[in-house]
């Protein structure tokens, strides 16, 4: 039922931007090719520090496999589960029957198109059928494990929290009802991979009609990917806050927010007792003591926003951070590689991802490994 494809790495490209992902991998010295729309293949075992920016998920040690039926898929999975036996593991099964590249447009137009009613294409109908097949495969595997693998069944968990060191990840991506790619990554997962705990690395874009702007969805998604969110009473600085989309999210979590911008936020936010508004330049503001959160979605050159983040981290001004970088042109790839190296040198846990809610941006989010206490 299975045929070995060698030790391969398969990536799911963000927004089906295969060309962009292939180019990004090429700049890192990796030879990549499109396997199918939305999937990019690299015939190497080690990629480097983290997933590529333009990849939502990776399949380490990918193997091309086939099975003629639901039950056959379940039996194939059972045969491959040996490396994860004895510990906790997660299973991600998803269809990838074909993707339609997202049209490049402005953020407002894109969100409008995404949420308005439209006719379903053949690929969308097929993908819907694939989702049903994936759930049937999971159910068939569960029934099989009840009979032949109770210890494996006991270790099978479902979560969207970041992976624990003892957790393994099994992924099956169906390219058709009878063919797909299988990856079995036993614990401990390589820290350099930073695999997404979300199926296919994708998170539905949040909708909240009460939010001051659609930009709030980026922070909601980044916090989910980080696996952490502001807690009640924690301090948060929102740089470039107006009209208040990111402040709105932080306040909903109970944080105390200092919002910095030249323009005021939406009126109801300005009245919130948990908000302190500072009229001024986001790049000139410095906290008097270490804060729990730095969030920044300011419209500026990406190099400038990156320098701001690095300055805050090097001074120990924040414990956690979420910052978007507005990419502009051909100079950005080298700039992102330089930022990766500097973040690694600062010894912080970080990720750099093109979010599902991003358009022409990437998001950098993470936490300082050694919290800095008190005023300086």
Describe it for me?
This protein has helices spanning 18-27, 70-80, 107-115, 122-148, 150-155, 216-226, 245-252, 267-270, 302-315, 332-345, and strands at residues 8-13, 32-36, 39-42, 55-66, 89-95, 168-176, 179-185, 235-239, 256-261, 275-279, 291-296, 318-326, 348-353, 361-368. The chain has 376 residues and is an alpha/beta fold. It folds into two domains: 8-201, 2-Layer Sandwich (VC0802-like), CATH 3.30.2130; 216-368, Vaccinia Virus protein VP39 (Rossmann fold), CATH 3.40.50.150. The protein is elongated, with a radius of gyration of 22 Å. It starts with 7 loop residues before the first strand and ends in an 8-residue tail after the last strand.
Task: Give a quick precis of the structure.
The chain is α/β, with parallel strands linked by helices and 376 residues long.
Classify the helix fraction into a percent range.
25-40%
| Distance from first to last alpha carbon | 63 Å
> How many β-strands, per DSSP?
14
Strand content: 25-35%
CATH topology of the largest domain: VC0802-like
Strand-pairing-aware structural class: alpha/beta
Q: Count the helices. How many?
A: 10
Text of the CATH class of the largest domain:
Alpha Beta
The whole-number mean of residue pLDDT values reads 87
Strand order of the largest sheet: 2-3-1-4-7-6-5
Short descriptors:
376 residues, alpha/beta, VC0802-like, 7-stranded mixed beta sheet, 25% strand
Write the layout of secondary structure elements.
Layout: E1 8-13, H1 18-27, E2 32-36, E3 39-42, E4 55-66, H2 70-80, E5 89-95, H3 107-115, H4 122-148, H5 150-155, E6 168-176, E7 179-185, H6 216-226, E8 235-239, H7 245-252, E9 256-261, H8 267-270, E10 275-279, E11 291-296, H9 302-315, E12 318-326, H10 332-345, E13 348-353, E14 361-368
Parallel strand pairs: 5-6, 8-9, 8-11, 9-10, 11-12
Antiparallel strand pairs: 1-3, 1-4, 2-3, 4-7, 6-7, 12-14, 13-14
């Amino acid at each position: 039922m299975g045929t070995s494809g060698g030790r391969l790495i398969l990536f799911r490209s963000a927004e089906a931007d295969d060309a962009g992902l292939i180019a990004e991998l090429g700049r890192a010295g990796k030879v990549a090719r499109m396997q199918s729309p939305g999937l990019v293949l690299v015939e190497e075992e080690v990629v480097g520090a983290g997933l590529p920016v333009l990849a939502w998920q990776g399949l380490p040690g990918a193997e091309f496999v086939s099975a003629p039926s639901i039950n056959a898929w379940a039996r194939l999975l059972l045969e491959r589960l040996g490396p994860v036996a004895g510990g906790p593991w997660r299973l991600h099964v998803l269809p990838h029957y074909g993707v339609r590249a997202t049209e490049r447009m402005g953020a407002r137009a894109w969100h409008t198109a995404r949420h308005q009613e439209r006719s379903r294409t053949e690929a969308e109908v097929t993908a819907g059928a694939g989702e049903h097949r994936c759930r049937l495969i999971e159910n068939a595997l569960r029934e099989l494990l009840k009979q032949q693998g109770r210890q494996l069944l006991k270790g099978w968990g479902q979560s969207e929290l970041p992976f624990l060191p003892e957790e393994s990840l099994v992924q099956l991506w169906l390219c058709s009802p009878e063919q797909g790619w299988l990856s079995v990554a036993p614990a401990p997962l390589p820290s350099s991979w930073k695999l997404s705990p979300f199926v296919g690395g994708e998170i539905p874009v949040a909708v909240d009609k009460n939010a001051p702007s659609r930009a709030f969805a980026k922070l909601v998604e980044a916090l989910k990917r980080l696996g952490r969110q502001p807690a009640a009473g924690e301090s948060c600085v929102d740089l470039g806050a107006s009209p208040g989309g990111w402040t709105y999210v932080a306040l909903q979590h109970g944080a105390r927010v200092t919002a910095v911008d030249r323009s005021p936020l939406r009126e109801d936010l300005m009245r919130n007792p948990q908000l302190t508004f500072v009229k001024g330049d986001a790049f000139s503001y410095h906290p008097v003591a270490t804060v729990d959160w730095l969030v920044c979605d300011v419209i500026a050159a990406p190099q400038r926003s990156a320098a701001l983040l690095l300055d805050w981290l090097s001074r120990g001004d924040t414990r956690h951070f979420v910052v978007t970088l507005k990419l502009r042109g051909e100079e950005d790839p080298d700039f992102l590689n330089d930022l990766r190296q500097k973040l690694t040198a600062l010894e912080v846990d970080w990720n750099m991802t093109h979010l599902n809610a991003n358009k022409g941006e990437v998001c950098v989010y993470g936490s300082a490994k050694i919290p800095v206490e008190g005023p300086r």
